[in-house]
Amino acid sequence: MEDLKTDSLIRHASLRQLQILEAVARLGGYTRAARALHLTQPTVWMQVKKLSDVVDLPLFEQIGKQLHPTAAGRKILAAAQDILERLGQLDDDMMSLRGEVKGKLRISVVSTAKYFIPHLLGAFVRRYPDVEPCLVVTNREKMLQRLRSNEDDLLIMGKIPENLEVEASAFLDNNLVVVAPPLHPLTKKRSIPLQSLLEENFLIREPGSGTRMAIDQLFADVGLQIKPYMNLGSSEAIKHAVMSGLGLSVLSLHSLRLELAGNHIAVLDVEGFPLKRRWYAAYPKGKQLPLVARTFLDFLLQDGKDILQDIPEQKPTASAVRR
Ligand code: PGA
User: Fold this and answer.
1) How far away, in angstroms, is 28 Cα from ligand 1 center?
2) Is 180 helix (H, G, I), strand (E, B) or coil?
3) Which residues make Cβ contacts (< 8 Å) with residue 42, sequence separation at least 6?
4) 88: number of CA atoms within 13 Å, CB side?
5) In the structure, what pLDDT confidence band is assigned to residue 34 with cuts at 50, 70 and 90?
6) Spatial separation of the C-alpha atoms in residues 199 and 255, rounded to whole Å
7) Which of 205, 198, 202, 196 is nearest to 228 (CA)?
8) DSSP character for 149?
9) Residue whose CA is closest, atom 2 of ligand 1?
10) Which pLDDT value is given to residue 89?
11) What is the C-alpha to C-alpha distance for residues 72 and 147, in angstroms, rounded to an integer?
């Protein structure tokens, strides 16, 4: 005989109710959830009440002005998140089987890649207008956490992680250069020894950044240790600090197009630079890429370089790269 107690959610709850509960918990209220789901506030409230009646427990409680899930609410929320995620993947799989390049494209990129990936996404969406890109920009360390928990379809990074099993394809060059304010005396010198940088105020990205890792490695390889004058959390902050005369730094050429074009920053001719790296698109080994992600990967490999060449401020500065 059927067990009436264990299947009451299957019989009386709906996927729509789980979606509503998730939205109320995530957005912290019935009105905001209603707005996000294009429903009325009483409908949202009523659906949460119906779900609460099925389990015979309250799912939210009001503390001050805040709505919080109860213990039962949290349990159902965790299950709802799993179920909705799984259904999202199922939708992707069905679209792939129908051969449709559409739906969510989840990409996470290290912060330096934000200077060129939006241009490539723009070109991709023009070709496939039904694709919905979701872009997360973070530093290398946080991106590797996302890779471990399989939160994205593709990850764009400057170095393949050694201790994680990934499929990775290089699709673009990434040259790191030493930058200084345009009137700095070193701009007049050629083949500046790496050691000279130790005498300068050196500005460096935060620990966890891939750029920072590459610089630390370069100095370590020749037995030097750089003492950073200042740690700054982003390439933008570093550029402004360099332009204001606070010190020198090493940045990816991709992040410097506008400043170089406007002569606001200068590239120094330092031995060992440009530090030549590549950009990789990666995903966990064994992952079945949805068709939209597979198509974007092919697009990066086939067309990525040419598309960036055609964008004026993305054109490589020949003099900076040739050294
Ligand atoms: P970052 O990474 O933006 O975290 O410095 C860049 C890279 O890995 O080259």
Assistant:
1) 34
2) strand
3) none
4) 14
5) very high
6) 25
7) 202
8) T
9) 210
10) 83
11) 31
- For a mutational test of ligand 1's pocket, the pick from 140, 156, 256, 276, i.e. the residue with the most ligand atoms closer than 8 A to its C-beta, is 140
| φ, ψ (nearest 5 deg) of residue 250 | -120, 125
Q: 272's torsion region: left (phi>0), alpha (psi -120 to 50) or beta? A: left
Q: Which residues of 103-142 are buried (b: 16+ CB within 10 A; e: fewer)?
A: bbbbbbbbbbbbbbbebbbebbeeeeeebebebebbbbee
Please list every protein residue whose CB sits less than 6 Å from any atom of ligand 1. 110-112, 139-140, 157-159, 174, 205, 209-211, 277
Task: Judge if pTM exceeds 0.90.
Answer: no
**CA 237 – ligand 1 centroid, Å:** 15
Question: Helix, strand or coil for residue 116?
Answer: coil
Neighbours of 64 (CB within 10 A): 6
Question: Distance from the CA of 281 to the center of ligand 1, in angstroms?
Answer: 13
Beta bridge partners of 232: 205
